[in-house]
User: What shape does this take?
Amino acid sequence: MPLRFVTVDLKQTKIYAVRFTDGGLQEARVALSTNPQEGVDAGLRRIRSAIRQVWPMQDAVTAIGLSVPGILDFKRGVLRSASDLPGWLDVPFRDTLVETFGVPTFVGKAAGVAALAEHRFGVGQGVADMVYIAVGETLESGVILDNRLFTGGNGLGGEIGHIAVALHDSKPVRRNVAYLETLLSNRTLLRRVRERVANGERSLLPEMLNGNLALLTVEVVCEAARQGDVPAMAVLAETGTYLGVAIVSLMHLLNPALFVLDGIVKFAGDALLSPMRRSIAVLASETYQEHTRTVLAQFGNDIGSWGALALCLMELSL
Assistant: This one.
């Protein structure tokens, strides 16, 4: 008899609940609107409703796994805050769900859970040490060391976005510091492209967007680059170079066997990947390069559900 798990992937607009077997068979799935503006209590009611809709009629559930955005106290299963969920502060997800459903409940931050999904079920299978990096609206990451998610002393470890890469003057205050996330994010990429076009560089983008650069998205930038657009190609190359530098730093710090890349990296193609690889080839020691691979993530929008299952399996040593 297979073990059964219920997972919840909490996103800004949707709540996805899935019932899995321990072998990864999806038996039921439901999606509800998050409506975060209605507050925490309403959100928790929706999460409980989603779980009940996929709960088996007869068989027992071994555990619940939950993927959440934002800053998480991993050890207590408490969401401290999340930019995607304004006003959701110090939400005790673990204790709330244990009280309601009476089964072990494990809560992970979205990027860490994504790392677990790729490690257990995706391109990281068989690798003990790996780093997952997603370049999106922010720079997200998850670190697997010795086949376990690294969470640090109080559950906040594994984040690379706030690694300081430059100090603009001698005063170490936030406004004077450049963080890795300020170089590697969709927002930064779009700003750089708009600046280049505004400064007079010839571009296909005004025609593609009917003159309205406010409609610019990373997907449009990638398509323009495929058509040979100079500003788009230049900014994607810059992004790839910065990503390569970040990978080299992590390569020397952690010596993982694998880097799994997600977000814009998956659909930008060689315009981003080639400069990234050149940075790694030039900057990383040969002995590190020999034992480290970089690959694209396997999962898509369902990575949170698979990762929440992997989190349960890790925590229960299954």
About this structure: The mean pLDDT is 93. The first strand starts at residue 4 and ends at 10. The chain is about 40% helix and 25% strand. The radius of gyration is 21 Å.
